[in-house]
Specification:
Elements: E1 2-4, H1 7-19, E2 24-29, H2 35-47, E3 50-55, H3 65-69, H4 75-84, E4 89-91, H5 95-98, H6 112-115, H7 118-122, H8 125-141, E5 145-149, H9 153-165, E6 171-175, H10 196-200, H11 203-216, H12 222-234, E7 242-246, E8 262-269, E9 272-279
Parallel strand pairs: 1-4, 2-3, 2-5, 3-4, 5-6
Antiparallel strand pairs: 7-8, 8-9
Helix pairs in contact: 8-9, 11-12
This protein binds adenosine monophosphate.
The site of adenosine monophosphate has 17 residues, from α2 and β5.
């Protein structure tokens, strides 16, 4: 596996593949890699001739400076994990390489997809940071395929809209959420969830299960499903920042729920804010 730290070196190392019209799969990450990231790398490895992972803790998508400061950075282990998963090239730029003139450019999507849910609670600047860095990474690596996790369902919709609106020639591939054996969605931030908070963190998955059970029991009312989810979280002594049953494409709240609806949750647990989601079956 090749480790490159500059845009020029990444371009150079992809030149032959591009000339050969090989498929190039990009897996954008912020490092602190876990099995969720590995699922993305595995799928990219199965589907593409060349697999590139980017490892970059993108400051422009952090709304909370403390969150940025304590975001785990584990480069050595990350590179080992990437190598184990058959990645060809790891792109590990520093902030100056990605933003040579500070943050003087922004690629921003506006509208309900970025204003609601995560955008409403973290601020839509979070998604402006995401679209900016993803647009830059797509320009830098020019992948034919890019891999994102369903764990960040709203991010997937935002990236798909970015690709559509800018006519970017890349296929977005979405990978199912990977969970711990007890159901907790894997996340780099889980490292900060300790002691009793680790048990309380199960509140999110419990709420997703409760909404599905309510649906299975015949309930089709959005508010009733939300109530079932909130009640389940309460037994873990966790209160959601938001818990909503929404349209899987527009993210608008649903009053009448059908299979395919998306249940999305964010909740503070101890020192971190966790998110999770599931599709009603
Ligand atoms: P991050 O490093 O947190 O920015 O995540 C990089 C990519 O990995 C994003 O597309 C995430 O949605 C995805 N990802 C994070 N956690 C998981 C998970 N538990 N299962 C599947 N994909 C994930």
């Amino acid at each position: 596996m090749l480790v490159v730290r500059t845009v020029a070196d990444l371009r150079e190392s992809l030149r032959a593949a591009r000339r050969a019209e090989a498929t190039i799969g990009l897996v954008p990450t912020m490092g602190a890699l876990h099995h969720g990231h590995e699922a993305l790398m595995e799928q990219a490895r199965r589907e593409c001739d060349v697999v590139v992972i980017s490892i970059f803790v993108n400051p422009t998508q952090f709304n909370d400076p403390t969150d940025l400061e304590r975001y785990p950075r584990t480069e050595e282990a990350d590179l080992a994990a990437a190598e184990r998963n058959g990645v060809d090239i790891a792109f590990v730029p520093d902030v100056a390489e990605m933003y040579p003139s500070g943050s003087s450019i922004e690629v921003r999507l506006d509208g309900p997809l970025v204003d609601t849910l995560e955008g409403a609670h973290r601020g839509s600047d979070h998604f402006h940071g995401v679209t900016t860095v993803v647009a830059k990474l797509f320009n830098i690596a020019q992948p034919t395929h890019a891999y994102f996790g369903q764990k960040d369902a709203q991010q997937v919709l935002v990236v798909q809209a970015l690709v559509r609106e800018l006519n970017l020639p890349v296929e977005i591939r979405v990978v199912d959420t990977v969970r711990e054996p007890d159901g907790l969605a894997m996340s780099s931030r889980n490292i900060h969830v300790k002691g009793d908070d680790r048990r309380r963190a199960l509140a999110l998955k419990a709420a997703l299960d409760a909404t599905q059970s309510a649906y299975d029991g015949g309930s089709r009312d959005g508010a009733a499903l939300v109530e079932a989810g909130v009640a389940a979280m309460k037994t873990y002594d966790v209160e959601p920042e938001y818990l909503a049953v929404v349209d899987p494409v527009t993210l608008e709240p649903l009053t009448e729920v059908d299979a395919g609806a998306l249940v999305v949750i964010a909740a503070p647990v101890g020192p971190v804010r966790l998110i999770d989601n599931a599709v009603i079956r």
